Automatic annotation (TrEMBL):
UniProt modified residues of type 4-aspartylphosphate: D56
Domain Response regulatory: 3-120
InterPro entries the UniProt entry points to: CdaR_GGDEF (IPR041522), CheY-like_superfamily (IPR011006), Homeodomain-like_sf (IPR009057), HptR (IPR051552), HTH_AraC (IPR018060), HTH_AraC-typ_CS (IPR018062), Sig_transdc_resp-reg_receiver (IPR001789), Tscrpt_reg_AraC-type_HTH (IPR020449)
Biological classification of the source: Bacteria, Bacillati, Bacillota, Bacilli, Bacillales
Protein keywords: Coiled coil, Cytoplasm, DNA-binding, Phosphoprotein, Transcription, Transcription regulation, Two-component regulatory system
Cellular localisation: Cytoplasm
HTH araC/xylS-type domain boundaries: 405-503
Coiled coil: 109-136
Organism, scientific name: Paenibacillus woosongensis
Name of protein: DNA-binding response regulator
Length: 505
């Protein structure tokens, strides 16, 4: 189990985050510690050595930036920053110091869960990678190179000469002026990475490969993908030789479903970390590549922003409203077919993915992390199945409940968001006026009064909490002016929120 340390100078924020994390029950996170500032955090870290740190930046005594600086080189922590809009200049500085992620205050539980899940996966991957190795004396050359490379790549942004020194320590020369990195990644996560390395080693021992004007060094990164440093001379036809050796590898392994990503070329050893990061950026497009293909950095830069239009999102709503299952596949194919994906930027693909899930949010489901998709077919099948599930669930809901029950469920799920009666009327395929009349006849009150009643009931429960501020409850319920909230609460409860809190105490 991993330990989590929450660092914030505001007790209500600190304890609130602790309660949220405890409620989320993130797998593999056990003990949750708290600290009131950076100095307090350093003392706790020296004793407890938490693997994950969730910290504010703007704090008295010792701020978050200085705390992170003092941790560098001493401990291996995964640091997540939680800060406000005004601290974004500090956030940028924290990323230079190796911070893993950033959340904007107030941190929502879904975002916090996604970040913590990702960090836990990274920790477990690192543990598995470490445990898989044997003792230092028994390490093969590949294992020793991999360990050294992975270790230094974590700190290369702070020390531009770090990789250069590792090459020298390992006795790996860079005789040519240009260097690029390539990552050979199996299409399936469960593919045998050791087999991939063996196939690559077999290629390097071929006589025609040895005559190429380049130096090739390989290692496994923390994702267990095979990384190849390619040292060559662009002025002596090196670029074509790079493509030649990679195509030779694909030709020699016809049965292996692998994607090769090639990053930018750098002309100095101090740029090796940049070359590697650019290759990771290219590899993120693996989703859009077919098996046994080569993704190039220059090609990625020409991708287009291709977003689903608002009109097409309305069409999706109509497909769901009318239960037109036969139109789901053509709809997804329009934006997520292989040709469209190969022409689109990753940000626009992710945006389209989010837009579709947002459009079908009526039936809340756990959203799959976009980065988990390795193949385009996986993405298409996921979206199609979610839309069909939404259609089925909606039809079942309409069959099982009358329109008033549907409205009450909608209010319950959207209580802290925007509530619009027209949405429910459209959902049930009835007019606004008919729904309004039906709701009042069934409940004895109009729809807006019902919403207000539910919100005031929520407010009463919230105000019973410890150290709860009235303005925070008002804001959560959508009241930009606390005075308006106080007026409505008093009208509903017969007393002001402050008087209610005193009564409850």
């Amino acid at each position: 189990m991993y330990k989590l340390l929450i660092v914030d100078d505001e007790e209500i924020v600190r304890e609130g985050l602790r309660d949220i994390v405890a409620y989320l029950q993130v797998q593999h996170i056990g003990q949750i510690l708290t600290a009131k500032d950076g100095a307090d955090a350093l003392s706790i870290i020296n004793i407890e050595n938490p693997q994950i740190i969730l910290t504010d930046l703007n704090m008295p005594v010792l701020d978050g930036i200085e705390m992170i600086k003092q941790l560098q080189g001493k401990h291996e922590h995964k640091i997540i920053v939680v800060s406000g809009y005004d601290d974004f200049h500090l956030v940028k500085e924290s990323f230079k110091l190796g911070v893993r992620d950033y959340l904007l205050k107030p941190a929502h539980s879904e975002e916090l869960l996604d970040v913590l899940d990702k960090i836990v996966r990274e920790l477990r991957q690192e543990e598995q990678q470490y445990q898989k190795g044997e003792s230092e004396k028994m390490l093969t050359q590949m294992e020793r190179v991999s360990r050294s490379m992975n270790w230094v790549l974590q700190s290369a942004e702070q020390d531009e000469h770090a990789l250069e020194r590792v090459f020298a320590e390992l006795g790996l020369s860079l005789p040519y002026p240009d260097t690029a990195a390539a990552i050979l990644s199996p299409m399936h996560s469960a593919s045998n990475a050791e087999s991939l390395g063996a196939d690559w080693d077999a290629l390097l021992t071929r006589p025609d490969t040895n005559r190429l004007p380049m130096k090739l060094y390989s290692f496994y990164n923390r994702q267990n993908d095979l990384v190849v440093w390619i040292n060559y001379d662009r002025l002596r036809g090196g670029s074509s030789a790079v493509k030649q050796v990679l195509e030779q590898f694909l030709g020699s392994t016809p049965e292996l479903p692998v994607v090769i990503a090639v990053g930018m070329t750098v002309s100095a050893a101090t740029g090796l970390a940049l070359a590697y990061r650019s290759t990771l950026q290219v590899l993120s497009y693996k989703l859009t590549a077919g098996p046994r293909s080569i993704l190039l950095y220059d090609e990625i830069l020409t991708r287009e922003e291709r977003h689903i239009s608002p009109a097409d999102l309305r069409i999706l709503t109509e497909i769901i409203d009318m239960g037109r299952k036969d139109q789901v596949l053509p709809y997804i194919q329009k934006y997520f077919n292989d040709e469209s994906l190969r022409r689109s930027t990753l940000d626009s693909i992710r945006s389209n993915y989010d837009a579709i899930l947002q459009t079908i949010r009526w039936i809340p489901r756990q959203k799959q992390d976009f980065s988990a998709f390795e193949q385009s077919e996986q993405l298409r099948l996921y979206l199609i199945s979610r839309i069909l599930q939404t259609i089925e669930a909606r039809q079942s809901l309409i069959r099982s409940y009358d329109m008033v029950e549907i409205a009450k469920k909608y209010v319950e799920e959207q209580l802290l968001g925007e509530i619009n009666m027209a949405v429910i009327a459209n959902y049930c395929n009835v007019s606004y006026a008919y729904f309004s009349k039906l709701f009042k006849e069934s409940t004895g009150m109009n729809f807006q009064d019902y919403v207000t009643m539910q919100r005031m009931d929520y407010a009463k429960k919230a105000l019973n909490g410890i150290n709860v501020k009235i303005c925070d409850v008002a804001s959560a319920l959508g009241y930009s002016n606390p005075k308006n909230f106080t007026r409505v609460f008093k009208s509903y409860c017969g007393m002001s929120p402050k008087e209610y809190q005193k009564l409850m105490k």
